[in-house]
């Protein structure tokens, strides 16, 4: 406290207080007198408080200066990163060896730990992983499992109430899934329930924007994003480790065309299934692979087994007359026959109580071009016998018909082939026209492409960007150039003058071969022609003057109708499909019809149905030449031993035409055609009226 101070007496006029004493006033007195100096005493606690406040003010100033410096640093860094020295975006990580460089169009790259995208050859997304949320629980923290499950059921109607209650009651566990792939709105609603022990986990959901297109090729994943079928399974590690998109050879536009055409034909002819393949004959790239019935890839887990079945690579079917391309090219490439040679299609071949015959046959001797154009089983059987079983097996093995198709799909199946010990003359003949052996449609497509180009390529579902003129990895030349040129003409002949006329497309010059085969029942016997248990297929290549693509179309158990006059054979139901696919896909691939050069192209591809034998050209008969061959040393080219007496020309595969040959060969004990013999190990025998094509 301050010391008391003596003040001068107040004048009488000065105001007084309630006690009669002069009232004290602040400021200078009114009479002009100067007041005395007042002394104030400050205690030690006051000094301490003042010192503390001064210290605090100093600290605040220092902190403010620090924040100011940090703010200026952030501003400077942002200015440098966005204005002065902006950074370019990082490039995607390089793909694995099996990936091909993506197109120059914009691509997206998955985040670390996220499954990579799958695209078609043009960058269209076929599979993508979307971020989502899963709800889980710690049962140890759940007080009332029943009540908690009921509350969750109100937010998630799809939740299995009993299952959720059971999982929430497992008090020994720390983590149980309740529902995967919930929406953000559902996540918010569950969070608002405030149930202790309920939490959320970020996850992924694999989505397939194209739905059913390329379903069996893409395959699917399980709940943990691991591939379990198709490309998703084959490249599971690649899709997990490498974030860059996996670019397939599939062209989703072509895939859509094949899918649509097969669906229409399948409905029109009431078939139980169908499949179609489009392949680049030079690289082996598969542009389309369709198997019907199919499924929505987004619902892979609920798809029936029949829809997951890939008829293109898993289904094994007797190829029927499409295999006659292999028989003809095999015989020509081994110099066993010439195009001017003739074969007996006038007489059925009897094997015990079974008979090989032609469907709507010509009942006469046929030249080699006629055997293919008219799809003669008899002619193909004789050609196969000329080649012999050993060379036939070697040829088919070289063409990949004895092993799985080398494509990146885990579903690729193993052909059904007779063992060498049972590869007798009956098997040689039936395999010659496509029965007694079962292969996948992809085997047929690969073999057809090899016949048209001379090179056997490895089919692939990965896009390839090969430099012009470079052969793809694994390609192998299997045909002589002259054989290849002849086979192109013969394939074109099937479309212009044979049973494949419905596949003709002006300006694209397709060639191919029809094939209709009976299905074998569960007991190993053919199921009967009256029930239409057939597989009708057309395998083709276009354009034949410069092959680029192979197209294969097949219907499983089609039924004829009025438009086909009741026929369900390949020429009526499969060849038109192939023609429509060629007409629609070719412009998409940058191929315009060449009408201007049609006369020159047709002339270059022309081969007569009945070519004459050049003067002095020999007939290829083992050991001897016709017509000098007679007596016991003579063997016809089929290898069948004939009687010792001179053989009438009507019974020989002569280089001349035998219009009058109509008497069947005599059955002798030495003739193997008279012995009962099964066609294959499953007990199936040659049907009494073997199918050809129309």
Structural overview:
It is a single chain. With 694 residues, the protein is of the alpha+beta class. Among the domains are: 131-207, Penicillin-binding protein 2a (Domain 2) (Alpha-Beta Complex); 261-604, Beta-lactamase, CATH 3.40.710. 30% of the residues lie in helices and 14% in strands. It has helices at residues 44-84, 145-155, 161-168, 184-193, 215-218, 230-234, 236-241, 252-268, 305-308, 324-333, 368-373, 377-387, 389-398, 425-432, 441-453, 481-497, 570-573, 575-588, 598-604; strands at 118-119, 125-137, 176-182, 198-207, 220-221, 227-229, 246-247, 273-280, 286-292, 342-344, 349-351, 354-356, 365-367, 455-456, 476-477, 511-518, 534-542, 549-556. Strands 1, 2, 3, 4 and 7 form a five-stranded mixed β-sheet that branches. It has a five-stranded antiparallel β-sheet with strand order 9-8-18-17-16, sandwiched between helices. Strand 1 and strand 2 form a beta hairpin. Helix 10 (324-333) runs parallel beside helix 12. The longest helix has 41 residues, at 44-84. The chain is elongated. The N and C termini lie far apart (129 Å).
| Top CATH class of the domain at 261-604 | Alpha Beta
Spans of at least 5 consecutive residues whose pLDDT stays below 50 are 89-106, 621-694
What structural class do you assign from the helix and strand content? alpha+beta
- The helical percent reads 25-40%
**What do we call the CATH homologous superfamily of the domain at 261-604?**
DD-peptidase/beta-lactamase superfamily
CATH architecture of the domain at 261-604: 3-Layer(aba) Sandwich
- Over the alpha carbons, how many angstroms does the gyration radius reach? 43 Å
Largest sheet: 5 strands, mixed
Number of strands: 18
The CATH topology of the domain at 261-604 comes to Beta-lactamase
Tally of alpha and pi helices = 19
Shape: elongated
Distance, first to last CA: 129 Å
């Amino acid at each position: 406290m301050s010391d008391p101070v003596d003040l001068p007496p107040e004048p009488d006029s000065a105001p007084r207080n309630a006690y009669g004493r002069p009232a004290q006033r602040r400021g200078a007195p009114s009479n002009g007198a100067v007041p005395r100096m007042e002394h104030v005493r400050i205690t030690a606690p006051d000094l301490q408080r003042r010192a503390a406040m001064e210290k605090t003010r100093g600290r605040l100033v220092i902190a403010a200066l620090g924040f100011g410096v940090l703010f200026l640093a952030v501003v400077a860094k942002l200015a440098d990163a966005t204005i002065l020295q902006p950074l370019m975006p990082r490039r995607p990580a390089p793909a694995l060896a099996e990936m091909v460089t993506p197109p120059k169009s914009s691509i997206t790259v998955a985040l670390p730990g996220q499954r990579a995208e799958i695209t078609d050859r043009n960058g269209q997304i076929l599979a993508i992983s979307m971020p989502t949320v899963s709800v889980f629980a710690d049962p140890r923290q759940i007080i009332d499992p029943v009540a908690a499950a009921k509350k969750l059921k109100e937010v998630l109607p799809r939740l299995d109430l009993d299952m959720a209650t059971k999982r929430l009651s497992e008090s020994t566990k720390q983590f149980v899934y309740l529902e995967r792939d919930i929406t953000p709105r559902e996540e918010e609603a569950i969070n608002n329930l405030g149930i202790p022990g309920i939490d959320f986990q970020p996850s992924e959901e694999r989505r397939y924007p194209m739905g059913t297109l390329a379903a069996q090729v893409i395959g699917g994943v399980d709940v943990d994003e691991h591939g379990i079928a198709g490309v998703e399974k084959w490249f599971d590690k690649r899709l997990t480790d490498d974030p860059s998109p996996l670019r397939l050879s599939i062209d989703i536009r072509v895939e859509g065309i094949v899918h649509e055409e097969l669906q229409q034909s399948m409905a029109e002819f009431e078939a139980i299934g169908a499949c179609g393949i489009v392949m680049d004959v030079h690289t082996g790239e598969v542009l389309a692979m369709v198997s019907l019935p199919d499924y929505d890839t987004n619902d892979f887990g609920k798809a029936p087994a029949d829809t997951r079945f890939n008829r293109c690579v898993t289904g094994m079917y007797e190829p029927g007359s499409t295999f006659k391309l292999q028989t003809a090219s095999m015989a020509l490439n081994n110099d066993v026959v010439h195009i001017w040679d003739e074969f007996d299609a006038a007489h059925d071949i009897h094997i015990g109580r079974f008979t090989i015959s032609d469907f709507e046959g010509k009942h006469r001797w046929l030249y080699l071009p006629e055997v293919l154009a008219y799809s003669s089983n008899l002619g193909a059987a004789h050609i196969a016998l000329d080649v012999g079983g050993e060379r036939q097996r070697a040829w088919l093995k070289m063409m990949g018909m004895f092993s799985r198709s080398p494509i990146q799909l885990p579903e690729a199946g193993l052909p059904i082939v007779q063992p060498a010990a049972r590869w007798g003359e009956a098997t040689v003949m039936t395999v010659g026209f496509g029965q007694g052996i079962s292969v996948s449609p992809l085997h047929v497509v690969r073999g057809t492409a090899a016949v048209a180009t001379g090179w056997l390529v490895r089919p692939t579902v990965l896009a390839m960007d090969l430099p012009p003129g470079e052969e793809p990895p694994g390609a192998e030349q299997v045909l002589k150039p002259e054989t290849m040129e002849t086979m192109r003409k013969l394939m074109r002949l099937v479309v212009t003058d044979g049973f494949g006329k419905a596949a003709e497309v002006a300006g694209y010059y397709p060639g191919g071969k029809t094939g209709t085969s009976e299905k074998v029942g569960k007991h190993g016997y053919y199921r009967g022609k009256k029930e239409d248990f057939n597989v009708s297929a057309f395998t083709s290549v276009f354009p034949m003057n410069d092959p680029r693509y192979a197209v294969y179309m097949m219907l499983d158990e089609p039924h004829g109708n009025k438009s086909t006059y009741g026929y369900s054979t390949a020429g009526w139901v499969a060849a038109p499909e192939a023609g429509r696919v060629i007409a629609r896909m070719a412009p998409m691939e940058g191929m315009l019809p060449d009408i201007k050069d049609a006369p020159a192209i047709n002339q270059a591809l022309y081969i007569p149905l009945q070519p004459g034998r050049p003067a002095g050209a020999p007939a290829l008969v083992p050991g001897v030449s016709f017509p000098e061959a007679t007596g016991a040393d003579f063997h016809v080219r089929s290898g069948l031993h004939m009687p010792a007496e001179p053989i009438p020309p009507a019974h020989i595969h002569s280089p001349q035409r035998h219009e009058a040959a109509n008497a069947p060969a005599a059955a002798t004990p030495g003739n193997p055609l008279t012995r009962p013999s099964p066609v294959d190990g499953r007990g199936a025998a040659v049907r009494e009226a073997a199918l050809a094509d129309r």
